[in-house]
Amino acid sequence: MPIIETSPRAAFERFDAHMGEMIRSVLPIPRGTTVGVKTLKDAATLGFWCGGVAASVPVETTRLGTLHLSLSQDLIAIREGTKFRLRTQRYAYKLLPSRDARAEAILRWEFRADTDDAAECRNHMHINAALPVGHGTLTLNRAHLPTAWVLVEHVLRFLFHDLGVPAETEEWPKVLKESETAFYETFTSKRYRFRS
Is residue 78 predicted with pLDDT exceeding 50? Predict the structure, then answer.
């Protein structure tokens, strides 16, 4: 069942409590930076914040040096009778080469609920690379490579497992698995499928 509460604020606070705790427990967050949900009436955004402004956090990889992670997940609370259901309108998870949020992302995973059916895939990723193909070049930073729904937990697993970013706890696989399970069993109408 998705997050359904008696007010938009209660829905956002429930999501914030879960995501903020999970991210802080596995990812080093620099002093002066917070992670959580900023709200504005019936809408909210999950992200990293520094002085009230969206920020990225440095992630020290063992293979590539320092990169910067930016998270942005826009949420709305939809009225259903006397209650409000939380819904993700958009997300953008970016791995940046520098702290500059305007820098071209190395990798980015994106979703927009309002994407037209005749446009790109709603869930997609971009890679800052180009491939020679046939008589031309496929610019992967402009192509919308289709993906399934990408969770923050998936991006964190990629950082820890593939890029060697040191996690705050050795229990990170368990923390991410439990959080992913909670997403599918508590925060959405989709159901989690356990591997046998």
Answer: yes
